[in-house]
């Protein structure tokens, strides 16, 4: 941290419900995501300026289902630039919650600095009665401004909780307490707007790190869902259409249908990465090396992010396997 009186926090806005608007203040479903610009978001919480010197930049203003790989790369590079040039002590990203965990995980795997990176969203649009966005944003800025938040990886803030991006997922389509890591729990809580951590700084075990500086684009990686009687047709099509890797959201500890298993074994023989995650939402997916790659504790969408980064970094099969194997 610098010697300046207040810590400097840069807010990058990308849209989502936190910037959402509707004509009705009881509407929490059919609103426009990405309606308000960054100036309105910041103006709704003037208290942030008591905590930090805040500056903001509008990167996108979309529902998070529209976020693309190129946006992730751009965002990661912007954050890197802030820290490399000592322009900020912490960074906040406002984001839609639907794919927030993917962006937060991407940032967690690509940051080269100990300074806090905080991804924040909301479940109720800014126009709703009891909108949760303003308090979430205040808490996110307070967290990014706090030196107690350093060396903890990328964090997610919603509903008074501080979560580790590595482990946390959106678990409910509608409720405010949607971000959860049932096995690992949360990192801490907010008392008013002050972050309170349960433990001293720690990082997720076996977290790989990727340097985004030299990555210009991310390769296509598809996710396929396994179920009873699943055919291998979509897997074959994905490969034909140019996927460089595939994640199968498989049953239990990594079991796909016989047709998918057979096709994955053939692809694995050719050195094509097929990662098996568990569709249960918790626990480890494991695989024998000849069958494919077990995603371990990562869900399918996080496995996809990791596989894209590993492929973009030029990793070969055995090194990719090591990124997933705990
Ligand atoms: N709560 C939200 O932010 C959901 C919204 N559809 C989004 O992800 O952009």
TrEMBL record:
**Single GO BP term:** asparagine metabolic process
Write out the GO MF terms. asparaginase activity
Q: Which residues bind substrate?
A: 64, 97-98
Q: Which domain of life is it from?
A: Bacteria
Q: Please list the residue ranges annotated as the Asparaginase/glutaminase C-terminal domain.
A: 220-324
Annotated coiled-coil positions are none
Kindly give the InterPro entries that the UniProt entry links to this protein. AsnASE_II, Asp/glu_Ase-like_sf, Asparaginase/glutaminase-like, Asparaginase/glutaminase_AS1, Asparaginase/glutaminase_AS2, Asparaginase_C, L-asparaginase_C, L-asparaginase_N
A Pfam family it matches = Asparaginase
Task: Give the protein's recorded name.
Answer: L-asparaginase
């Amino acid at each position: 941290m610098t010697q300046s009186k207040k810590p400097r926090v840069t807010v990058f806005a990308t849209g989502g419900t936190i910037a959402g608007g509707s004509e009705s203040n009881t509407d929490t479903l059919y609103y426009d995501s990405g309606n308000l610009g960054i100036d309105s978001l910041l103006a709704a919480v003037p208290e942030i300026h008591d905590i930090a010197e805040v500056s903001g930049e509008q990167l996108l203003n979309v529902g998070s289902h529209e976020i693309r790989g190129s946006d992730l790369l751009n965002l990661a590079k912007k954050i890197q630039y802030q820290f490399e040039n000592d322009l900020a002590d912490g960074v906040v990203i406002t984001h839609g919650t639907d794919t927030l965990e993917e962006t937060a995980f991407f940032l967690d795997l690509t940051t080269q600095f100990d300074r806090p990176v905080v991804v924040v969203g909301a479940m109720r649009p800014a126009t709703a009665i009891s909108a949760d966005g303003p308090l979430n944003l205040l808490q996110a800025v307070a967290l990014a401004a706090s030196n107690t938040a350093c060396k903890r990886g990328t964090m997610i803030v919603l509903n008074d909780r501080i979560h580790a991006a590595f482990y946390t997922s959106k678990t409910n389509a509608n409720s405010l307490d949607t971000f959860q890591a049932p096995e690992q729990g949360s990192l801490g809580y907010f008392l008013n707007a002050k972050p309170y951590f349960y433990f001293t700084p720690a990082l997720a075990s076996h977290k790989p790190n990727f340097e985004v500086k030299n990555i210009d684009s991310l390769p296509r990686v598809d996710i396929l869902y396994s179920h009873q009687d699943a055919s291998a047709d979509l897997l074959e099509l994905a490969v034909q259409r140019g996927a460089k890797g595939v994640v199968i959201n498989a049953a239990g500890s990594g079991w796909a249908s016989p047709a998918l298993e057979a096709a994955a074994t053939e692809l694995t023989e050719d050195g094509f990465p097929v990662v098996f995650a568990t569709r249960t939402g918790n626990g480890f997916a494991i695989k024998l090396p000849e069958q494919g790659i077990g995603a371990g504790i990562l869900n399918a969408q996080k496995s996809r992010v990791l596989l894209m980064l590993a492929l973009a970094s030029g990793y070969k099969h055995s090194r990719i396997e090591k990124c997933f194997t705990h």
